[in-house]
Here is the input.
Amino acid sequence: MRVSMILLVVLLLNLSACTYQDNMKNNNPFFVEYGTPFEVPPFDLIQNKDYLPAFEAGMNQQSDEVALIINRDEEPTFENVIVALDQSGELLDKVSSVFFNLSSANTNDSIKAIAKEVAPLLAQHRDNIALNEDLFKKVKAVYEKRDELELNPEQAMLLKETYEGFVRGGANLQGEAKERYREINKELSVLTVEFGENLLNETNAYQLVIKDKSDLSGLPDFVVDMGAADAKAAGMDEAWMFTLQKPSLIPFLQYADNRNLRKQIFKAYINRGDNNNDSDNKEIAAKIASLRAERANLLGFNSHAAFVLDNNMAKTPDKVYALMDRVWEAALPVAKAEAAELQKMIDAENGGFKLEAWDWWYYAEKLRKEKYDLDDEQLKPYFELENVKNGMFGVANKLYGLSFKVRDDLPKPHPDAVTYEVFDKDGTHQSILIMDFFPRESKRAGAWMSSYRKQQKRDGENISPIITMVMNFTKPTAESPSLLTFEEVSTMFHEFGHALHGMLSDCTYEMLSGTAVSRDFVELPSQIMENWAAEPEVLKSYALHYKTGEPIPDELIDKMNASKHFNQGFATVEFTAAAYLDMAWHTLETTDLQDANVFEKDAMDNIGLIPEIVVRYRSPYFAHIFSGGYSSGYYSYQWAEVLDADAFDAFKEHGLFDPETALAFRKNILEKGGTEDPMKLYMQFRGQEPDASAMLRRKGLL
Here is the structure.
């Protein structure tokens, strides 16, 4: 039997070699070293036809590598099993990183079709590894000897995560349960792709086209100019177009006097995926929740949330609910008071109507102007994209000694992208950073950080990371550069925090490097960066008027500080309602299919969400949990807010750019990835456990 297996492995390797040679003849860029500086993917050479052959070869290669691990005659060791597994699948990682980054940021019909085809194949491939009994025996043999191996903390964590990954991946399942587990994963892989595609289609399908100039009443010049530019780009003259992309949607809701048009665009936004058409997501969301519950039951958990949280800092749904309940009890009365104040403003204007969700942004902006003599129109001229970016880089330089150099000679994933080489304080190469700022139909909404290559160490060599930040900010127009709201400035600093987590990683094993940490810890590096964006000392360095170059005046900074708690009831309730909705879907202990709209209404009624506020993400467009990685994890932003408020206090206590505090944060948080328990890492930095009070005080909710 052993001889037969070895012959089979040799045959597979020979077949892989033939496949490799055949693909080489087709000049597939994935099958050779890229030959670019720092091995940045040659985006200009990669064609859609290259993906499927590369995926196939990558899966075959990793299968061969796994077979070699299984068929080694020598005793299982940390190196020949655990490290070998971590280093397997290099080609598959190579093609996956390019394909899935581009499918989010620059998709097309061909890529969508490939995604649907490859999703079940990848799910099957992952299961073939995770459910391989012979491989699990090898992993388990090493794990059972863990106390004898004298492993360092990172090695011990890799062994723990590998073993538990197999257990959580169904390795202990038998017979029909194992086969059903495979079927569930395959089906989920397709449904989550479909959910994301439907949402993109729904977002792109809507256009509010205005031809009567009177309907632009209330809109600032920058919003009007943006609408004209978008209409012109769509081939319409003498018109203004507004879309469901946030840079277009939010200013329209804030400033448009025409209440009917505000209602129209708002309803279009909140009904995405809920239009009973080919892009409807209600049944898909319900099916995903059902399958996840069934899979959790197979693995011995009461619910998907119990399964997910068992591997997070929170550990249990009860602890998540305890945090959310504390926040909700503080925020809901504030939101109700805010609603009453907005209603008073409507009544004072003889509006003659009850405050609705599509009115909140408009009247909140008017009230902010009335209370603090402040609005986004005053601030945006000071938040020109390039200046904000340079200010952000300046913060990284002061904290960690990093410097950034534009590299126009490197390939780009899209013409809009800008690529930087990042240097450490001693001038050595640290990372490549690719930034992509503006919305387009081929890009999904939102903002995110990802990687084309994660940091790791092999054979004594450090493999530096290639990190990407993707945003959807207002495009420049003929009249003005890209000007940001302060919320967008905060978003940029947030994603840069994730990028720093990836760029400054100093780990040995890819599985643990960079942002490979528990979901409720990963937002700490991102959210703490937002704090610097609002500090007066930092604002003065980057908030420069795009016409005059004058720094933002103290008067405006004082107004920003005075208004920082304004509308926090709304913002906190809107967010926390989404976290409750996520948990409601994923604490289901039944596999019965739910009516998504009825289920959502019941969940929101249960927490007492007021009708003037719509949950931030309704189920049919809640991409974080139904097509992203945040199922049972949307609460993690709030959990991390507790951490970041407490952590930033350390900087406030010792100085915004105190070298020792910055070094401690870098060494214990940013460099460590998932190599140690997150609370241990946090305690090593802070010296104490965090308390939610700091976060609630910062929001003005205590």
